[in-house]
Specification:
This protein is mainly beta and about 375 residues long. The chain contains six helices and 25 strands.
Length: about 375
Protein backbone atom coordinates (compact mmCIF):
# COMPACT_ATOMS: atom_id res chain seq x y z
CA UNK A 1 0.00 0.00 0.00
CA UNK A 2 1.32 3.44 -0.95
CA UNK A 3 0.38 6.72 0.73
CA UNK A 4 0.79 10.38 -0.20
CA UNK A 5 0.65 13.55 1.86
CA UNK A 6 -1.04 16.34 -0.07
CA UNK A 7 -0.62 19.99 1.00
CA UNK A 8 -3.62 22.33 0.86
CA UNK A 9 -7.32 21.71 0.25
CA UNK A 10 -8.64 23.64 -2.70
CA UNK A 11 -11.47 23.74 -5.20
CA UNK A 12 -10.91 23.95 -8.93
CA UNK A 13 -13.93 25.50 -10.65
CA UNK A 14 -14.05 25.15 -14.41
CA UNK A 15 -16.46 27.54 -16.11
CA UNK A 16 -17.56 26.66 -19.64
CA UNK A 17 -18.88 29.50 -21.77
CA UNK A 18 -20.23 28.87 -25.26
CA UNK A 19 -20.85 32.15 -27.05
CA UNK A 20 -22.57 35.20 -25.67
CA UNK A 21 -26.09 33.78 -25.56
CA UNK A 22 -25.93 32.15 -22.15
CA UNK A 23 -23.52 29.25 -22.61
CA UNK A 24 -25.98 26.43 -23.25
CA UNK A 25 -24.62 22.90 -23.36
CA UNK A 26 -26.45 19.81 -24.58
CA UNK A 27 -27.15 16.88 -22.26
CA UNK A 28 -28.82 13.53 -22.81
CA UNK A 29 -30.65 10.88 -20.88
CA UNK A 30 -28.42 7.82 -20.42
CA UNK A 31 -30.52 5.53 -22.57
CA UNK A 32 -30.12 3.87 -25.93
CA UNK A 33 -28.62 6.39 -28.37
CA UNK A 34 -31.49 5.94 -30.84
CA UNK A 35 -34.09 7.28 -28.41
CA UNK A 36 -32.10 9.60 -26.13
CA UNK A 37 -33.75 12.79 -24.81
CA UNK A 38 -31.74 16.01 -24.99
CA UNK A 39 -31.24 18.39 -22.10
CA UNK A 40 -29.43 21.66 -21.53
CA UNK A 41 -27.75 23.01 -18.46
CA UNK A 42 -29.07 26.27 -17.06
CA UNK A 43 -26.71 27.01 -14.18
CA UNK A 44 -23.91 25.21 -12.38
CA UNK A 45 -22.23 27.43 -9.83
CA UNK A 46 -23.48 26.04 -6.52
CA UNK A 47 -20.58 24.78 -4.38
CA UNK A 48 -22.56 23.43 -1.42
CA UNK A 49 -20.71 20.55 0.16
CA UNK A 50 -17.12 21.80 -0.22
CA UNK A 51 -15.04 20.84 2.81
CA UNK A 52 -12.98 23.68 4.23
CA UNK A 53 -9.64 22.64 5.69
CA UNK A 54 -6.17 23.94 6.40
CA UNK A 55 -4.28 20.81 7.50
CA UNK A 56 -2.42 18.21 5.47
CA UNK A 57 -4.63 15.55 3.90
CA UNK A 58 -3.61 11.89 3.70
CA UNK A 59 -4.74 10.02 0.60
CA UNK A 60 -4.91 6.24 1.00
CA UNK A 61 -4.58 4.74 -2.48
CA UNK A 62 -6.39 1.48 -1.83
CA UNK A 63 -9.15 0.13 -4.00
CA UNK A 64 -12.88 0.08 -3.33
CA UNK A 65 -13.39 -3.62 -3.97
CA UNK A 66 -14.89 -4.19 -0.51
CA UNK A 67 -17.44 -1.46 -1.11
CA UNK A 68 -18.25 -2.86 -4.56
CA UNK A 69 -19.07 -6.13 -2.81
CA UNK A 70 -21.80 -4.37 -0.83
CA UNK A 71 -23.76 -3.44 -3.98
CA UNK A 72 -22.67 -5.74 -6.79
CA UNK A 73 -25.29 -8.46 -6.30
CA UNK A 74 -28.00 -5.84 -5.72
CA UNK A 75 -27.37 -4.23 -9.12
CA UNK A 76 -29.40 -5.52 -12.06
CA UNK A 77 -29.58 -5.18 -15.83
CA UNK A 78 -32.98 -4.21 -17.21
CA UNK A 79 -33.93 -5.05 -20.79
CA UNK A 80 -36.93 -3.26 -22.26
CA UNK A 81 -38.92 -5.26 -24.81
CA UNK A 82 -41.71 -3.71 -26.84
CA UNK A 83 -43.95 -6.03 -28.82
CA UNK A 84 -41.39 -8.83 -28.66
CA UNK A 85 -38.41 -6.68 -29.72
CA UNK A 86 -35.55 -5.55 -27.48
CA UNK A 87 -35.44 -1.75 -27.82
CA UNK A 88 -33.09 -0.69 -25.02
CA UNK A 89 -31.31 -1.76 -21.87
CA UNK A 90 -30.47 -0.01 -18.63
CA UNK A 91 -29.56 -0.61 -15.02
CA UNK A 92 -31.24 -0.59 -11.63
CA UNK A 93 -30.70 -1.71 -8.06
CA UNK A 94 -32.68 -3.72 -5.53
CA UNK A 95 -33.49 -1.43 -2.62
CA UNK A 96 -35.93 -3.67 -0.76
CA UNK A 97 -36.86 -7.33 -0.31
CA UNK A 98 -40.13 -8.27 1.35
CA UNK A 99 -41.45 -11.82 1.38
CA UNK A 100 -41.74 -13.24 -2.11
CA UNK A 101 -40.98 -9.94 -3.86
CA UNK A 102 -37.99 -7.67 -4.37
CA UNK A 103 -38.19 -4.04 -5.49
CA UNK A 104 -35.95 -2.28 -8.00
CA UNK A 105 -35.36 1.45 -8.50
CA UNK A 106 -34.47 2.65 -11.98
CA UNK A 107 -35.19 5.50 -14.42
CA UNK A 108 -38.53 6.08 -16.10
CA UNK A 109 -36.86 6.30 -19.49
CA UNK A 110 -35.40 2.80 -18.99
CA UNK A 111 -38.85 1.17 -18.72
CA UNK A 112 -40.90 3.63 -20.80
CA UNK A 113 -43.48 2.04 -23.14
CA UNK A 114 -42.37 -1.47 -22.20
CA UNK A 115 -44.50 -4.52 -22.91
CA UNK A 116 -42.02 -6.85 -21.18
CA UNK A 117 -39.15 -6.26 -18.76
CA UNK A 118 -36.40 -8.82 -18.34
CA UNK A 119 -34.20 -8.38 -15.26
CA UNK A 120 -30.79 -10.01 -15.08
CA UNK A 121 -29.08 -10.56 -11.73
CA UNK A 122 -25.32 -10.64 -11.19
CA UNK A 123 -25.63 -14.46 -11.16
CA UNK A 124 -26.94 -14.22 -14.78
CA UNK A 125 -30.33 -15.52 -13.65
CA UNK A 126 -33.15 -13.75 -15.48
CA UNK A 127 -36.51 -12.79 -14.00
CA UNK A 128 -39.43 -10.96 -15.56
CA UNK A 129 -40.26 -7.67 -13.85
CA UNK A 130 -43.47 -5.70 -13.40
CA UNK A 131 -43.59 -1.90 -13.42
CA UNK A 132 -45.51 -0.74 -10.36
CA UNK A 133 -45.25 2.99 -10.98
CA UNK A 134 -43.15 5.57 -12.79
CA UNK A 135 -42.97 9.29 -13.46
CA UNK A 136 -41.40 10.93 -16.50
CA UNK A 137 -40.69 14.25 -14.76
CA UNK A 138 -38.83 12.62 -11.87
CA UNK A 139 -37.32 10.07 -14.28
CA UNK A 140 -37.96 7.40 -11.65
CA UNK A 141 -39.63 4.00 -11.74
CA UNK A 142 -40.23 1.13 -9.32
CA UNK A 143 -40.19 -2.44 -10.65
CA UNK A 144 -41.35 -5.53 -8.74
CA UNK A 145 -39.86 -8.99 -9.25
CA UNK A 146 -39.64 -12.36 -7.52
CA UNK A 147 -37.24 -12.38 -4.56
CA UNK A 148 -36.45 -16.10 -4.83
CA UNK A 149 -32.97 -15.61 -6.31
CA UNK A 150 -32.19 -12.25 -4.70
CA UNK A 151 -29.22 -12.44 -2.32
CA UNK A 152 -28.48 -8.77 -1.62
CA UNK A 153 -30.19 -5.40 -1.27
CA UNK A 154 -28.55 -1.99 -1.53
CA UNK A 155 -27.57 0.09 1.47
CA UNK A 156 -28.87 3.64 1.12
CA UNK A 157 -26.63 6.54 2.08
CA UNK A 158 -26.91 10.33 1.99
CA UNK A 159 -26.02 12.70 -0.81
CA UNK A 160 -26.62 15.60 1.58
CA UNK A 161 -23.78 14.39 3.80
CA UNK A 162 -21.48 13.83 0.82
CA UNK A 163 -18.89 16.46 -0.06
CA UNK A 164 -17.48 17.75 -3.31
CA UNK A 165 -14.27 15.83 -3.95
CA UNK A 166 -15.52 12.61 -2.34
CA UNK A 167 -14.74 9.37 -4.16
CA UNK A 168 -17.79 7.86 -5.84
CA UNK A 169 -18.35 4.83 -8.04
CA UNK A 170 -21.05 3.27 -10.18
CA UNK A 171 -22.09 -0.26 -11.10
CA UNK A 172 -24.16 -0.88 -14.20
CA UNK A 173 -24.53 -2.07 -17.77
CA UNK A 174 -22.96 0.48 -20.13
CA UNK A 175 -23.49 0.15 -23.89
CA UNK A 176 -24.97 -3.35 -23.83
CA UNK A 177 -25.70 -6.61 -22.03
CA UNK A 178 -22.20 -8.00 -22.53
CA UNK A 179 -20.74 -5.25 -20.31
CA UNK A 180 -23.12 -5.83 -17.38
CA UNK A 181 -21.59 -5.43 -13.95
CA UNK A 182 -19.10 -2.75 -15.04
CA UNK A 183 -17.63 -0.67 -12.23
CA UNK A 184 -16.31 2.87 -12.73
CA UNK A 185 -14.82 5.23 -10.14
CA UNK A 186 -14.59 9.00 -10.00
CA UNK A 187 -15.26 12.12 -7.95
CA UNK A 188 -18.35 13.93 -6.78
CA UNK A 189 -17.80 17.05 -8.88
CA UNK A 190 -20.77 19.16 -7.84
CA UNK A 191 -24.07 19.30 -5.98
CA UNK A 192 -27.35 21.10 -6.68
CA UNK A 193 -26.75 21.38 -10.42
CA UNK A 194 -29.90 22.70 -12.09
CA UNK A 195 -30.33 20.95 -15.44
CA UNK A 196 -33.23 21.54 -17.81
CA UNK A 197 -34.52 18.29 -19.30
CA UNK A 198 -36.69 18.08 -22.42
CA UNK A 199 -39.35 15.67 -21.17
CA UNK A 200 -41.24 15.81 -24.46
CA UNK A 201 -41.48 18.08 -27.47
CA UNK A 202 -43.49 20.75 -25.64
CA UNK A 203 -42.50 20.54 -22.00
CA UNK A 204 -39.27 21.20 -20.12
CA UNK A 205 -38.51 20.22 -16.54
CA UNK A 206 -35.63 21.19 -14.27
CA UNK A 207 -33.82 18.51 -12.30
CA UNK A 208 -31.65 19.22 -9.26
CA UNK A 209 -28.84 16.68 -9.63
CA UNK A 210 -25.39 15.56 -8.50
CA UNK A 211 -22.49 15.98 -10.92
CA UNK A 212 -19.85 13.24 -11.18
CA UNK A 213 -16.85 12.51 -13.37
CA UNK A 214 -17.12 8.72 -13.08
CA UNK A 215 -17.60 7.20 -16.53
CA UNK A 216 -21.30 6.64 -17.19
CA UNK A 217 -22.69 5.73 -20.58
CA UNK A 218 -25.96 4.73 -22.26
CA UNK A 219 -27.06 1.65 -20.33
CA UNK A 220 -25.89 3.00 -16.97
CA UNK A 221 -29.29 4.69 -16.64
CA UNK A 222 -31.03 3.81 -13.39
CA UNK A 223 -27.93 2.30 -11.84
CA UNK A 224 -26.62 3.32 -8.41
CA UNK A 225 -24.14 6.08 -7.69
CA UNK A 226 -22.31 5.16 -4.50
CA UNK A 227 -19.96 6.69 -1.96
CA UNK A 228 -16.71 5.02 -0.97
CA UNK A 229 -18.55 2.99 1.68
CA UNK A 230 -20.76 1.35 -0.94
CA UNK A 231 -23.89 3.31 0.07
CA UNK A 232 -26.24 4.55 -2.65
CA UNK A 233 -26.27 8.37 -2.81
CA UNK A 234 -27.84 8.79 -6.25
CA UNK A 235 -29.42 7.25 -9.35
CA UNK A 236 -27.59 7.79 -12.64
CA UNK A 237 -29.79 9.61 -15.12
CA UNK A 238 -28.05 12.12 -17.43
CA UNK A 239 -24.80 12.64 -19.27
CA UNK A 240 -23.06 15.34 -21.26
CA UNK A 241 -23.01 14.66 -25.01
CA UNK A 242 -20.85 17.57 -26.12
CA UNK A 243 -17.95 16.14 -28.16
CA UNK A 244 -15.35 18.48 -26.67
CA UNK A 245 -16.14 17.68 -23.04
CA UNK A 246 -15.69 14.46 -21.08
CA UNK A 247 -16.46 13.22 -17.60
CA UNK A 248 -19.69 15.06 -16.80
CA UNK A 249 -22.49 12.80 -15.65
CA UNK A 250 -25.50 13.50 -13.44
CA UNK A 251 -27.45 11.55 -10.86
CA UNK A 252 -30.72 12.05 -8.99
CA UNK A 253 -30.03 12.43 -5.23
CA UNK A 254 -31.24 9.36 -3.36
CA UNK A 255 -33.14 11.43 -0.75
CA UNK A 256 -35.21 13.04 -3.50
CA UNK A 257 -35.99 9.68 -5.10
CA UNK A 258 -37.02 8.03 -1.84
CA UNK A 259 -39.60 10.78 -1.16
CA UNK A 260 -41.70 9.31 -3.97
CA UNK A 261 -40.96 5.59 -3.71
CA UNK A 262 -43.98 4.70 -1.57
CA UNK A 263 -46.41 6.28 -4.04
CA UNK A 264 -44.65 4.68 -7.00
CA UNK A 265 -44.81 1.27 -5.29
CA UNK A 266 -48.57 1.71 -5.02
CA UNK A 267 -48.88 2.81 -8.64
CA UNK A 268 -50.27 6.17 -7.59
CA UNK A 269 -50.12 9.03 -10.04
CA UNK A 270 -48.20 11.92 -8.57
CA UNK A 271 -50.36 15.03 -8.18
CA UNK A 272 -48.77 18.22 -9.43
CA UNK A 273 -50.05 21.71 -8.68
CA UNK A 274 -51.56 23.93 -11.34
CA UNK A 275 -52.13 27.70 -11.41
CA UNK A 276 -54.20 27.81 -14.60
CA UNK A 277 -52.16 29.66 -17.21
CA UNK A 278 -50.40 28.98 -20.49
CA UNK A 279 -47.15 30.86 -20.85
CA UNK A 280 -44.08 31.63 -22.93
CA UNK A 281 -40.56 32.65 -22.00
CA UNK A 282 -40.01 36.40 -22.25
CA UNK A 283 -36.92 35.60 -24.33
CA UNK A 284 -39.06 33.86 -26.97
CA UNK A 285 -39.81 37.20 -28.61
CA UNK A 286 -41.07 35.85 -31.95
CA UNK A 287 -43.72 33.59 -30.41
CA UNK A 288 -44.70 36.31 -27.95
CA UNK A 289 -45.24 38.64 -30.90
CA UNK A 290 -47.42 36.00 -32.60
CA UNK A 291 -49.75 36.20 -29.60
CA UNK A 292 -50.09 39.93 -30.16
CA UNK A 293 -48.13 40.78 -27.02
CA UNK A 294 -45.41 43.33 -26.50
CA UNK A 295 -42.97 43.07 -23.63
CA UNK A 296 -41.20 46.00 -22.02
CA UNK A 297 -37.61 45.74 -23.38
CA UNK A 298 -36.31 46.32 -19.84
CA UNK A 299 -37.75 42.92 -18.84
CA UNK A 300 -35.12 40.34 -19.77
CA UNK A 301 -36.30 37.26 -17.82
CA UNK A 302 -39.58 35.76 -16.71
CA UNK A 303 -42.64 34.23 -18.34
CA UNK A 304 -45.50 36.00 -20.08
CA UNK A 305 -49.07 34.69 -19.68
CA UNK A 306 -50.76 33.91 -23.00
CA UNK A 307 -54.07 32.67 -21.55
CA UNK A 308 -55.82 32.13 -18.21
CA UNK A 309 -58.12 29.18 -17.51
CA UNK A 310 -61.63 29.96 -16.34
CA UNK A 311 -62.15 29.23 -12.65
CA UNK A 312 -58.45 28.63 -12.02
CA UNK A 313 -56.41 29.97 -9.13
CA UNK A 314 -54.75 32.40 -11.54
CA UNK A 315 -58.07 33.86 -12.67
CA UNK A 316 -59.30 34.17 -9.09
CA UNK A 317 -56.09 36.02 -8.22
CA UNK A 318 -56.69 38.49 -11.06
CA UNK A 319 -53.90 37.42 -13.42
CA UNK A 320 -54.42 38.32 -17.09
CA UNK A 321 -53.01 37.68 -20.54
CA UNK A 322 -49.85 39.76 -21.02
CA UNK A 323 -48.81 39.73 -17.35
CA UNK A 324 -45.13 38.84 -16.90
CA UNK A 325 -44.45 36.60 -13.90
CA UNK A 326 -41.05 37.36 -12.38
CA UNK A 327 -41.02 35.55 -9.01
CA UNK A 328 -42.74 32.94 -6.84
CA UNK A 329 -42.43 33.23 -3.07
CA UNK A 330 -39.58 35.68 -3.57
CA UNK A 331 -37.61 33.30 -5.83
CA UNK A 332 -36.81 34.70 -9.26
CA UNK A 333 -38.56 33.08 -12.24
CA UNK A 334 -36.12 33.00 -15.14
CA UNK A 335 -38.13 30.89 -17.59
CA UNK A 336 -41.10 28.51 -17.87
CA UNK A 337 -39.09 25.41 -16.91
CA UNK A 338 -37.82 27.01 -13.72
CA UNK A 339 -41.30 28.29 -12.90
CA UNK A 340 -42.62 24.72 -13.06
CA UNK A 341 -39.73 23.59 -10.86
CA UNK A 342 -40.72 26.17 -8.23
CA UNK A 343 -44.42 25.28 -8.49
CA UNK A 344 -43.75 21.55 -8.17
CA UNK A 345 -42.05 22.06 -4.82
CA UNK A 346 -45.57 22.74 -3.50
CA UNK A 347 -48.60 20.56 -2.88
CA UNK A 348 -52.08 20.87 -4.34
CA UNK A 349 -54.04 23.28 -2.14
CA UNK A 350 -51.00 25.37 -1.16
CA UNK A 351 -51.13 29.14 -1.57
CA UNK A 352 -48.14 30.85 -3.16
CA UNK A 353 -47.11 34.47 -3.48
CA UNK A 354 -46.64 35.45 -7.11
CA UNK A 355 -45.07 38.70 -8.34
CA UNK A 356 -45.73 39.96 -11.87
CA UNK A 357 -45.42 43.06 -14.02
CA UNK A 358 -48.38 44.70 -15.73
CA UNK A 359 -48.19 48.04 -17.53
CA UNK A 360 -44.68 48.58 -16.16
CA UNK A 361 -45.96 48.23 -12.60
CA UNK A 362 -44.97 45.40 -10.26
CA UNK A 363 -47.74 43.66 -8.35
CA UNK A 364 -47.91 40.71 -5.94
CA UNK A 365 -50.91 38.39 -5.45
CA UNK A 366 -51.66 35.12 -3.68
CA UNK A 367 -52.58 32.15 -5.87
CA UNK A 368 -54.11 28.88 -4.63
CA UNK A 369 -52.83 25.79 -6.45
CA UNK A 370 -55.20 23.15 -7.82
CA UNK A 371 -54.64 19.74 -9.44
CA UNK A 372 -52.85 19.75 -12.78
CA UNK A 373 -55.64 17.84 -14.54
CA UNK A 374 -58.15 20.47 -13.40
Amino acid sequence: MREKIVKLCGLLLVVIVAGSGGGYITYRMLEDELSASNTIIEQSTNTTGVVKCSNDVKLDETGISTSVGKIYDATVTIQNYQNGRLVSSGSGFIYKKEGEYAYVLTNHHVIEDTTKLLITLSSDDQIEGEVLGSDKYLDLAVVKMSSELVTQTATLGSSENSNIGDTVFTVGTPIGYEYRGSVTKGTLSGKNRMVTVSVNSTSDWIMNVLQVDAAINPGNSGGPLLNANGEVIGINSLKLVEDKIEGMGFAIPIEYAMKYVEKLEKGQELERPFIGVTMLNVSDSYRVYQYGLRIDPDIEEGVVITSVSTGSGAEKAGLKKGDVIISIDGKEVTNAAYMKYLLYQHEVGDTIEMTFIRDKKQKTVEVTLTKLED
